């Protein structure tokens, strides 16, 4: 289970956090407000409130910091196994609450997931509308609700992209992929860029489909004639079958069953008709005679007692029905065909249809579809030469248009690349890589693919005199972390999300570089809500909301605790992170120095 302790009292004035962050209103309203977790991994029950600015999660390796991030990932649609349910529980439940920004609000309104009453109340100044995402995970699957409405994984994926972006230290390897780099570059383009990219993709697909059709037509004359002859043979057989009704075989089965028993049916129906209306024998009374006699007697009694009127009406109705049934039986018997040739004709037709189904589909509907397909195939084979020339011309025109659009896309990308390179170098300067050069190299492809004509490579020259080289060939682990932080800082703005998660992005860094990362996160936290997992006291020192995660092993359970630290507790936590012990004047002095530096960094 998990316990949440908090000694931080709202409104409490700490020496090192005198001023509040001046954060734009849209950012405040978009941020992650809280997460509630039940029976997830080692967590029995927890509720964590997140604040504006920099939220730091610290704790020993293996203490369970990742559980909170895993829970947030899960509630926003991440894949989780059934084994994530806490042992002894039937299901895990996670609920995350977000404020609403305009872009998210518009998306929710479009998907009909926003309560109009909430919007009206907000406009009245009563409260800010919120977005609640809840996920219930059981042993057979999971259910996801947005504002109480069940949604699909795909829909939630769209929403997730509007809410958070996650950057982890291990993600640095994605920077080495040319395809990932191209995708990142395109993400900086505006609506016109996106439309052009989608247009290139569409043109490429049309070209591919047209090429495949042309290839199918490009066969030898001998092969064409062979295919045409076989298609004509099959089509002739289907046309001769004169298939009109896809249920004809079922109707035939019923008709054949009747004709096979026609003599018995005629005898039975005539016998029934004679019982109703009488036969050749003058001694027997028919059903009609008996009902008429009964009707006569009731009519006599009716003159005395009017209560017999309903019975009289019933007998009249019955007599009418019996006479009608007798007539229907006579007509049915007269229509029965007992000619053996008729039965033979039907059986021959049924055999023909059975052959058709055996060759061209298990049902007549499939055989009819095959007939239409063969008609088209014959037409195509008969006109393949003319059609091939026409398609070749169309393909040439389409290739030219694709190439034109791809060249336009490449020009746009080069402008984006120039701007991105300048921004990355500025960010790297802030991160202690003052002399680093960052470039984006373009290699033209011989033929356009769905992404156009470009292969891009992110190149860096960390030191003066070095030629720019691909990231994976020259960057160290620490350099990659800083380069990723620089790029992600830029893309956080492009993503237009309010909450950015950094998962141990400062791993492997030290000294002056860590100070630069601390400063960068502090500045980012003035425009974004930052959730940051770190083992570095220098980074943790600038937290607005300091959460310490710990794990305690008991006799029958493991308890994960999350504590919101006040200033004294922060001091000891920073000391413990720096030296391994929260005791000792040297450790505490170092921690105090970090907090003083943090106050200066934040401009407090």
Q: What do these coordinates show?
A:
With 604 residues, the protein is an alpha/beta fold. Among the domains are: 1-151 and 501-516 and 529-564, 3-Layer(aba) Sandwich (Rossmann fold), CATH 3.40.50; 248-362. It is built from 21 helices and 16 strands. It has helices at 25-30, 65-75, 102-110, 116-123, 153-163, 178-187, 191-217, 221-240, 248-260, 262-277, 287-302, 309-335, 340-360, 364-382, 384-430, 471-474, 477-495, 511-524, 537-540, 567-579, 585-601; strands at residues 2-6, 32-40, 43-49, 54-58, 91-99, 130-138, 141-146, 149-150, 164-168, 437-449, 452-461, 469-470, 499-503, 529-533, 545-553, 558-564. Helix 11 (287-302) runs antiparallel to helix 12 (309-335) and helix 13 (340-360) packs across helix 14 (364-382). The two termini are 38 Å apart. The model is unreliable at 1-28 (pLDDT under 50).
Features of the shown structure:
elongated, disordered N terminus, 21 helices, 7-stranded mixed beta sheet, single chain, Rossmann fold, alpha/beta, 604 residues
